[in-house]
Design brief:
6-stranded mixed sheet, 11 helices, Alpha-Beta Plaits, alpha/beta, 4-stranded antiparallel sheet, Rossmann fold, 2 domains, 35% helix
Length: 321
């Protein structure tokens, strides 16, 4: 049974605007699914339907085996949600908020304090547990919100742009926690503006544009669709007949892959279908032919390349991470 399943899911607003126009999703248990899309593509609307905050106007969806429209209470009992804007009471301490959340989820009163303490430690807030949340930094609030979403050990966790605006250290901490949750078997549905984040964390990625899924696969397969890695090579200074030497170097490279347009003098570029595994044989072949390599730069297609090809634009946060 999939952890998340949507069939022809739709959401139409008054006036005929279709924010989500018939999408199909299937996320397996224990999978991290990265959900990417430009602003206004339907990403947030999709998440709001899956977490039962918004009713679909067409199609259907199940989360943890329960229908989001007809069994919303059962869905809510099995999911954790950390939205981009965490609604935290700034006058309460971190521990007080955690214990309140545990109580609201019906956790045994005898276990509330231990459960809250364990999660506070897990997200690295033990030194700030007795401080009011109003004194927390943005990264600390994100980590507290994540801990609150985990208080009842949900089967499925929805993270809505969890690292937007965070410093690199805080972002890295949250990445580590997402990986740990996946290793423990939690399904994570991750929306993000950071392509690097999706590339690092997601087992599969779905790209939504104008309310429709326009691409879906593993990051590696999506990147392979838009091209193969290529190796840029700068040779050490060539003596005398530089053009003849470059022509000879190109003959050597022709054995390894299609050559790309060259840059400045003594610069060559060749496609490498096997990626990094093809670098060493090329260096050896050039050395055997009497060439000295000054520098190498292996360039791989990125998720931004995929995003641009599938949607016709770059993601807003593509360069921010």
């Amino acid at each position: 049974m999939p952890a998340i399943e949507a069939v022809n899911l739709q959401r139409q607003y008054k006036g005929g605007l279709k924010a989500v126009d018939g999408i199909d999703l299937r996320v397996e248990p224990g999978e991290v699914y990265g959900f990417l899309g430009p602003n206004g593509a339907g990403k947030t609307t999709t998440v709001r339907m899956l977490v039962t905050l918004l009713r679909p106007t067409g199609g259907h969806a199940k989360v943890a085996g329960f229908d989001v429209s007809t069994e919303p209470s059962a869905v809510r009992a099995r999911i954790g949600v950390a939205l981009q804007e965490a609604a935290l009471d700034h006058l309460m301490t971190g521990r007080e908020l955690m214990e309140l959340q545990a109580t609201l989820h019906g956790i045994d009163p005898k276990k509330v304090r231990d459960r809250a303490g364990d999660l506070i430690t897990r997200v690295g807030l033990e030194q700030a547990a007795e401080r009011r949340v109003g004194t927390y930094s943005g990264g600390m609030r994100r980590r507290l919100d994540l801990a609150m979403a985990l208080i009842h050990a949900p089967e499925v966790l929805f993270l809505d742009e969890p690292t937007t605006g965070l410093d690199p250290t805080s972002r890295s901490t949250l990445w580590e926690e997402v990986r740990r949750l996946r290793d423990e078997g939690t399904t994570v549905f991750l929306t993000t503006q950071y392509l690097e984040e999706a590339d690092q964390l997601a087992d599969r990625v779905g790209i939504i544009s104008a309310g429709r899924i326009v691409a879906e696969d593993t990051p590696a397969k999506l990147k392979a669709e838009v091209g193969v890695p290529h190796l840029d090579i700068t040779l050490a200074s060539l003596d005398g007949e530089a053009e003849q030497d470059l022509a000879r170097a190109r003959e050597v490279l022709a054995r390894f892959g299609d050559q790309r347009p060259a840059g400045p003098d003594c610069h060559l570029s060749v496609a490498l279908p096997d990626g990094a595994a093809g670098v060493a044989p090329i260096v050896r072949a050039l050395d055997d032919a009497g060439f000295t390599v000054a520098s190498l730069d292996l360039q791989s297609p990125t998720l931004d390349d995929v995003f641009a090809e599938k949607t016709g634009r770059h993601l807003e946060g593509a360069g921010a991470a």
